[in-house]
Design a protein that fits this description.
By secondary structure, the protein is α/β, with parallel strands linked by helices. 33% of the residues lie in helices and 25% in strands. The protein is built from nine helices and ten strands.
Length: 263
């Protein structure tokens, strides 16, 4: 199966602090994985490197075969459209409508721009698509509401609709439920993974909840100290290996160590 996202030897430092120490993994088209690791292990930095929101010193990131490290200007913008991000913070504009927030997802479309993404000037096709995206997340009835009037779970659903409006092929969800209560968080995860499955999108989702990671992620990529130390099908990983990602001593299980040595 063709690769949607390839990361090889990715290294990144901030001054004297090395954050990424040669990260390697590949996601096939339509594949889903959960990314785990303690705070400070380099997860968020790595995610921001994928579309060059953060630069990196060495290594390669390929999106559908295109090396992003060699791109700039319009060519980089084209590749960035392929990656749709959902963040812990919803990053909505609170005092404008839900519908307008979703329309902003079309800013990067060919022929787009700020004017054509405003509800008063947006082409009918874009307006129809924005409503379709809201229907996908169950919030079509909230289209005229201001975003700040919605609950946290609803705002994250709007953020997912805005991401869908972008028409990405790869979804990067960086702790999308960290700001939500357990019930709302589960509902958002169920929605996100259902949509990416139905749309056959590739998804990489960072979580801290091991039970949810094992439930929703068919594959788990575990990072520690700037490296990938676990990369396997979820049902082949013992819970002690996942817990090891959060231990200060850096220990992982013998099973994990032997598997990576074999690979």
């Amino acid at each position: 199966m063709a690769a949607a996202l390839e990361v090889k030897g990715l290294k990144k430092s901030f001054g004297d602090v090395t954050v990424l120490r040669g990260v390697d993994f590949t996601l096939a088209k339509g594949e889903g994985a959960v990314l785990l690791g303690a705070n400070g292990c380099g997860k968020s930095t790595m995610l921001r490197c994928l579309n060059r929101l953060t630069s990196f010193e060495s290594g390669t990131v390929r999106v559908h075969g295109t090396d992003v490290s060699t791109l700039a200007g319009a060519k980089l913008k084209i590749v960035r459209r392929e990656l749709g991000y959902v963040f812990q913070q919803f990053n909505l504009i609170g005092n404008v409508s839900v519908f307008q927030n979703v329309l902003f997802g079309a800013l990067g479309h060919p022929g787009g721009g700020l004017i054509n993404s405003l509800s008063a000037f947006a082409p009918q096709a874009e307006r129809d698509r924005a409503m379709h995206c809201l229907e996908r997340v169950g919030l079509a009835d909230k289209a005229p509401f201001r975003a700040h009037a919605l609950s946290g779970g609803q705002q994250q659903r709007v953020a997912i609709a805005r991401m869908l409006m972008q028409s990405p092929t790869i979804v990067i969800a960086d702790e999308p439920i960290a700001s939500l209560d357990p019930k709302a968080g589960r509902e958002v995860l169920e929605l996100l993974f259902r949509i990416v499955s139905e749309e056959r999108l590739t998804v990489l989702c960072t979580l801290h909840q091991l039970d949810l990671a094992r439930e929703f992620g068919p594959r788990i990529i575990g990072m520690k100290d700037g490296r990938v130390v676990i990369d396997a099908a979820t049902d082949s990983i013992h819970i002690s290996e996942l817990e090891g990602l959060y231990r200060a001593d850096g220990a992982t299980s013998a099973a994990s160590a032997s598997r990576h040595a074999a690979e």
